[in-house]
Task: structure prediction
Amino acid sequence: MTRWSEELDARNFHRKVTGVDGFLVATGKRTSGNGGRPAVIYRRGPATVLHPPILRG
Result:
């Protein structure tokens, strides 16, 4: 992922957006792709702001 012309670590980004209450809400469903562990599917939650924000390095 790139923002501000810098690479974002996908694991840290995932931890950030799923860790903020109400930003994403798990649907209880998973992908049905082939191979590997199926990914959890999320929907947008009521929160509109990441707090604390993702900061530039």
